[in-house]
Amino acid sequence: MALSLIRELGPVLTAIMIIARAGSAMTAEIGIMRISEQIDALKTMGINPVRFLVSPRLAAGLISFPLLTALFDVIGIFGGYVTGSILLGINSGIYFSRVESSVRMTDVNGGFTKAIVFSVVVITICCFQGYYTHTRKEGFGAKGVSLSTTSAVVISCVLVLIVDYIVTSFLL
Question: 159-167 — which CB contacts under 8 Å span 24+ positions?
Fold first, then answer.
């Protein structure tokens, strides 16, 4: 259980939760800034909007995705311990020795590698969708922002699964 949690479930489910919470908020915020011409105002003041809006989010993603993945892994392993020891009566020493024997450092590094790659993919897609909200043919204003946010969430989730497959094939 711990091996699948660290290799696959931790990074992927963490990324999907971040997409749902922070990715959608990021897309909506940048989209609203675009339709209210705040990004144009940044350009007028000589501020590079990509450097000003995207770079801090990317830096935060590169820090937060691996940390949240580690937290997810620890809580998941502890949840397995509680379930195994209380509900199934498994000896705690046996549980932790099996966790320790089944998980190698390369598995942990692979999970963190996935988290870092996912952060770049998710932040890029969400910021791109928000930044180009004004180019949507389907709608402008609030409708355009909602469509951009929906697109960002769907595209990010699909790409996380595709990138997970690709990264896993390189790591194995």
Answer: 159/121, 159/122, 159/125, 160/12, 160/15, 160/16, 160/19, 160/118, 160/121, 160/122, 161/12, 163/114, 163/117, 163/118, 163/121, 164/8, 164/11, 164/12, 164/114, 164/118, 167/110, 167/113, 167/114, 167/117
130: its two tokens: 């928000």
List average pLDDT for each run of 10 residues in the chain, which is 172 residues long.
91 97 97 93 95 96 97 95 90 90 94 97 97 81 91 98 96 86
Q: What is the pTM of this model?
A: 0.91
Contacts of 32 by beta carbon, 8 Å cutoff, 6+ apart: 145
> Where exactly are the structural domains of the chain?
2-171
